[in-house]
């Protein structure tokens, strides 16, 4: 079974500052992918960043980086230089390779509010 | 073109109506998905199609009937729905379903209201 835990229901950050959104996971699959998605109030899920379980380096995509600590089973999202448009719900998700192939497991999400 | 389109954007239907949701992608992806999402909750997987064949059905009631006419199109046929089926229905696609090493691209969703 796969499980994603996001312990922060809501987060606030000042514009232009960095923020970390927490994500821990549990899985029996030896290899898996970890993903972060952004969902604005409009509803569309926007893919942000991906980390493979065998990747040695942390993933980065523009202002987004993923702090991957495999031994601790954590995959935190770091957003640098927050912008007002970053206000949205953020979901951490994982997909396994074997027993759970094809299924994405999502966390409960974190609502981020960027204050001007 | 990294886009998944869904129609309609909004749908209001009665419990006796029959309607269909449509999803289309032109990224050459071989896996397509339907999710149901309630407000402020994570998406719940409903169906997975891999190479146009249904590979996962998450015990979804038969009033929801998926169809994959070709590799670019995915439909969700709705019949005799209940008010608790009101939700955002999201379609997604990915290169493959059998690996966790590729991201899913989501459409904008259809907001369904069942009266």
Question: What's a concise summary of this model?
Answer:
The complex is a heterodimer of chains A (116) and B (115). Chain A has 116 residues and is mainly β.
Can you describe this structure?
The complex is a heterodimer of chains A (116) and B (115). With 116 residues, chain A is mostly beta strands. Chain A has strands spanning 3-5, 10-14, 19-21, 24-26, 32-39, 46-52, 60-61, 64-69, 74-79, 88-96, 104-106, 110-115. In chain A, strand 10 and strand 11 (104-106) form a beta hairpin. The termini of chain A are far apart. The mean pLDDT of chain A is 93. Chain B has 115 residues and is mainly beta. Helix content of chain B is 0%, strand content 56%. Chain B has no helices and 11 strands. In chain B, the strands form 2 sheets. In chain B, strands 2, 4, 5, 6, 9, 10 and 11 form a 7-stranded mixed β-sheet that branches. In chain B, a hairpin with a 2-residue loop joins strand 5 (44-50) and strand 6. Chain B is globular, with a radius of gyration of 13 Å. Chain B starts with a strand and ends with a strand. The model of chain B has no long low-confidence stretch (mean pLDDT 93). Classes of the chains: A mainly beta (116), B mainly beta (115). The interface between A and B is medium-sized, with 30 and 27 residues.
């Amino acid at each position: 079974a796969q499980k994603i835990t996001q312990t922060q229901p809501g987060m606030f950050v000042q514009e232009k500052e960095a923020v970390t959104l927490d994500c821990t996971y549990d899985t029996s699959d030896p290899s898996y992918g970890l993903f972060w998605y952004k969902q604005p109030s409009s509803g569309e899920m926007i893919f942000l960043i991906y980390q493979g379980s065998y990747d040695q380096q942390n993933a980065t995509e523009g202002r987004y980086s993923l702090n991957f600590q495999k031994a601790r089973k954590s995959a935190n999202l770091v957003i640098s230089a927050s912008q007002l448009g970053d206000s949205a719900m953020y979901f951490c998700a994982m997909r396994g390779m074997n027993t759970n192939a094809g299924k994405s497991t999502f966390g409960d999400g974190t609502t981020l509010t960027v204050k001007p | 073109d990294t886009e998944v389109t869904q129609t309609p954007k909004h749908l209001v239907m009665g419990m006796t109506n029959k309607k269909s949701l449509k999803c289309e992608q032109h990224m050459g992806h071989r896996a397509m998905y339907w999710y149901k999402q309630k407000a402020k909750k994570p998406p719940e997987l409903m169906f997975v199609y891999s190479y146009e064949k249904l590979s996962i059905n998450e015990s979804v009631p038969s009033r929801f009937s998926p169809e994959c006419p070709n590799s670019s199109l995915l439909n969700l046929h709705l019949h005799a729905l209940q008010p608790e089926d009101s939700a955002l229905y999201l379609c997604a696609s990915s290169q493959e379903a059998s690996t966790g090493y590729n991201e899913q691209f989501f459409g904008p969703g259809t907001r369904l209201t069942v009266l």
